[in-house]
Amino acid sequence: MSRFFPILVGVLIGASVAQAEWPIPTADRTTWQYALTREGETEPETLTRQAFAPRNPDEQNTLRIETAINGVVHSTEFFKNDGQAVLTTARRGESGNTETFDPPITILPGDLSFGAEWKYRGPVAGLDLNLPLKIVGEGEIEVPAGKFRALHFRGEKNDGLFTVADFWFVRGVGSIKETVTQRSPGGDLLSRNAIELVKLPAQHQAEPAEKKKLEASVSTSSNGDPLNVISADALQIVARWRGHGLRRNARIRAIWIAQDTGVAPIDFKVDEATAIAPIGGAFGKFTLSRPPDGWATGKYRVEFYVDDELTETVDLTITPSSPRSRSALDFLNPDRTLPASNF
Fold first, then answer.
1. What is the C-alpha separation between 274 and 277, in angstroms, rounded?
2. Is residue 332 part of a domain?
3. How far apart, in Å, are the Cα atoms of 279 and each of 210, 245, 247, 291, 341?
4. What average pLDDT score do residues 99-124 get?
5. CA torsion 38→144→201→177, rounded to 10°?
6. In the sheet that 214-219 helps form, which strands lie side by side, from edge to edge?
7. How far is CA 200 from the centre of its chain?
8. 244 and 196, same structural domain?
9. 91, 193, 231, 242 — which has fewest CB within 10 A?
10. Are 305 and 250 within 8 A, CB to CB?
11. Counted domains in the chain
């Protein structure tokens, strides 16, 4: 055993790569929901941002965030946390084209203190902006998601259009409010967008698959793979069941039905058997042995009942067996014939 110990240690060490601390939630499918308002529009829109964590452990310091407006993806940003800052390494626009940034662009500096400055490029209140940002203050602010003490970032740019962007950021939550105002060179208002966080970011919870009260399958042995097609030369057919949350001493009944065989009437009940489940997670099996004249080919089903309630149905087709290879004995004894069968 000792010869394998170094390998195990190597795997553990390889899996324990240091992870940088993120200033925002990074759990897979974490979603931020905002109300988006635009100057001149009476009805607010919905803007969402959703985080997608990497599946590769070697990329655990990266993150992808999709921004969507009214359910339509507007942009996708690819982030990296190098321990000193959160950086944008690439961006995918509405057209699907991806732009790579080399060097990466700072989204958030590691030092979030008053007066910190950095060059920003990314989404702001539904717009894509490229402008310098600065932390200009900290204070209480209230949005639909609640009241927060937030850092205030501000950016201004005059490149023919005069743009002013404001962020209110809370460590551990993310951006809770953003506004962008754009004016013409003459000072006329051209646009004003604002988003406000509607509820705290939440990780997407997949609906748990509800377990059936009874799981059932059919095979040719107790431990064989579930089958829906069985050869007519099978020695036995095993109908297996397993309960989930059954009441104590529940009655489990299996009914073997010939649906369409050409031999018996349609939906002919061949046989049935009953068992008692002493506990909620009990399991068991019902076994049918091959008749002396063989299985009739055709379509069957096994119905499973829990306390007379039909809970599960398994369909089964019995097909003709493969032709048997003749042995030397068949040629040495010409009077020998194959056993009779009904298929």
1. 10
2. no
3. 19, 8, 7, 33, 42
4. 91
5. 50
6. 214-219, 236-243, 283-289
7. 21
8. no
9. 231
10. no
11. 2
**Assigned domain for 324 exists:** no
The dihedral through the CA atoms of 2, 6, 8, 13 has a sign that is: positive
Three-point CA angle 8, 9, 11, nearest 5° = 65
Q: Using the 8-state DSSP alphabet, how is residue 5 labeled?
A: H
pLDDT at 335 over 90: no
8 A C-beta contact, residue 261 and residue 296: yes
Domain that holds residue 70: 20-203
Is residue 158 located within the same domain as residue 74?
A: yes
HSE value, Cβ hemisphere, 13 Å, CA-based, for 234? 23
Measured CA to CA, the distance from residue 66 to residue 143 in angstroms comes to: 22
What mean pLDDT is predicted for residues 71-89?
A: 91
Dist CA 343 CA 261 (whole Å): 10
Query: Do 116 and 60 fall into the same domain?
Result: yes
Do 147 and 26 sit in the same domain of this protein? yes
Q: Are residues 115 and 174 in the same domain?
A: yes
Has residue 96 got a pLDDT over 90?
no
Whether residues 25 and 61 share a domain: the answer is yes
Q: Place 153 in a pLDDT band, splitting at 50, 70 and 90.
A: very high
What is the arithmetic mean of pLDDT over 314-325? Answer: 82
Banded pLDDT at 329 (limits 50, 70, 90): very low
Give the phi and the psi of residue 264 in degrees, each rounded to 5: -100, 165
Span 268-282, mean pLDDT? 90
Check: pTM over 0.70? Answer yes or no. no
> Cα separation of 314 and 249, whole Å?
23
CA distance 91 to 121: 10
Residue 14 clears pLDDT 90, i.e. is over it: no
Greatest distance between any 2 Cα atoms in the chain = 112
58 and 166 in a common domain: yes
Name residue 165's beta-bridge partners. Answer: 155, 180
Residue type at 161 in one-letter notation = L
* Pairwise pLDDT comparison (335 vs 112), residue with the higher score: 112
The per-residue pLDDT of the chain, averaged, comes to 84
